[in-house]
Fold:
Amino acid sequence: MTHTYQWFYHRLRSMTVSEIMFRSGEFIRKKAGRRRMGWQPAVRLAHLPEPLLPFDPSGTPVVTFSPEQPIFRHTIDINTPVDWHLDINTGRRFPLIYAKDVDVRSGRWGSAKYAWEINRLLFLPQLAVQYRQTGDQRFLTQFLELNRSWFAENPYLTGVNWYSNIEVNIRLINWFISWNILDASGLAQTNNDFRLFVETEWLPVIYQHCVYSRSNPSYHSSANNHLISEYAGLFIAASFWAFPESPSWRNYAKAGLEREIQLQHSARGINREEAAEYIQFITDFFLIANVVGDRAGDPFSEAYTAKLKQILAYIAQFLDCGGTFPRYGDEDDGRVLLLDDAHPHNNFQSLLRSGAVLFGEPLFKQQSASRGDVPRFDLKNYILFGAAGQSLFEAVPVTSEPLGSVLYDEGHYIFRKQEIADDPSKFREIYIHADAAPLGFLSIAAHGHADALSFLMHVDGQVFLADPGTYSYQTDPEWRNYFISTRAHNTICIDGQNQAFQAGALLWLDHYKPQVLSSLSNDQADEVVATHNGYARLQCKHQRTFRFEKANDLFSIRDLVENYGQQARLVEVMFHFGPNVRVDTLSRNKFVLSHPDTERRVWLTIASGLRTEIMTGQTEPLRLGWYSEGFYRNQPTTTIRASLMLDPERTTTLTHQLEVIEPADVDPLIHKQTESRRVLQKQ
Structure:
């Protein structure tokens, strides 16, 4: 069975009857779509829309535009001609054929992600800001040349850039933002070349994008973040440009956003895709649409804004004191807008600044800056809210109360201990994220990882126990399979198998069901006991107890593993460390973990009955000891693999401890362990 047929077979298994009928109908729609390749609509508006956003170039933070634009682990120079169909990583080029016939899965034409990242046109609003701030005609000329090049080389429904509706809608949003920054209607009155560009080139392509967006919605098992982007892009465009269909488009898209913000989030605002980095990406769609609805006199419901506030509240809680988020699930560095005036830019913190403006919440403002930094209003928020928004932000008080633990019934448990000192450099935090959540959203759980009962641990804003990341989606299948696997997470893996069946790069079958047996949180301790059924097919069960004793700075993990079958099973307990963590071995099962950016250490004790191995950057016989800090970026790190063989019809209990210790306590502990080893060696 070829790779394509395998994928199709497993994809079919994940579909309902209604979805199978829908997918069958796509063949007919695809055939009809070919007839529209190269379609060039004749579009005119009665008047060009005035800016909807309150942009004042004199008040924005001064930003120096760089023509070197980051594209994952590479850059492109937009001062040189852009090949819009090139994967700059492999040098392969996607063909100019009917969009739906383009192969984006096998990699034979390269990685579509590389091509799409360039074609989102995230640099256009940056050029628009530079033009408005400086008045330098070169920036406007470059803006026109880049757009004209894109229009000429991407005829309607031709090539990879018309394949995915999410890409179409991100371009729509960036054109909307650029139009508002430029004050395109005002500029068209004084610049004849720009007016001709707007009327004869830009508006027809915007209209094409709206038509495509409305005609190609994501349905059934594909209706995840893609559907959100489709509704958001179309709502924003239809609220601004008065095309004949705009009223119906706007109503359709607004109803969709109202529905999806509820469907795709839990009762407490947690995104159901179980991909933490995606939260900033998805929330931007809801946020920008909300801002546009208010400005256009078509506000969203109270239920919508209440859910948006819940989403922001979850973001505020799940960031550690350094603004780092718990990296569960997929991440691809995706951004809706790239309006950064600080590097590195933290879009989660930018969203909390937006939340402080919209809701006046002190917690949002407090968590919009890393501890020790002063909360500031950034460029993206200035463009969305203007000087009035900045005044609202500055009027929000900042609380200095330490944050505590928060246990979410949806399966995300944040154990936290903060100690506040007068000197910001002395601020201390122990942050633990325990995961007993479902695999992901909808039948394919596309962006979830097989990470049931895993955990992360940050100390003083530094990553000690880590989620290794994502690295890639469709291409590099060996790396994709590793990073989403159970073995690549801080949990128990049995017989080297995943807790669910991976049927494709973005397709899971036979989802495990987590069950939380008990949870508690008080001033003395946090504790969660949970299990899952992912290994029932192996006739095994894993139950894990997470316990954080705050007075002792002690985090313990108790694993109960039961093999009720007739075959011995390999049990592996995985500990993955951040790339800057040093691991010192004291004995077979005792280690000291240190990080160059905090004086405190972590004392790790692994259950004595386990055999331990330290692995760094290994690909054979097992792929272990890797960390991906961003999409298509990868580096060696340290992993401890602890294992045992569990005989048939046997149960074992394994207890591990992570204790945060002070610098003065490190040397005596190391000395004590060294002496113990010497005694054992003499014996």
User: Anything to note?
Assistant: Residues 675 and 681 are 10 Å apart (CA to CA). Residues 406-679 form a domain with the Beta-galactosidase; Chain A, domain 5 fold (CATH 2.70.98.70). The radius of gyration is 26 Å. Residues 677-683 have pLDDT under 50 and may be disordered.
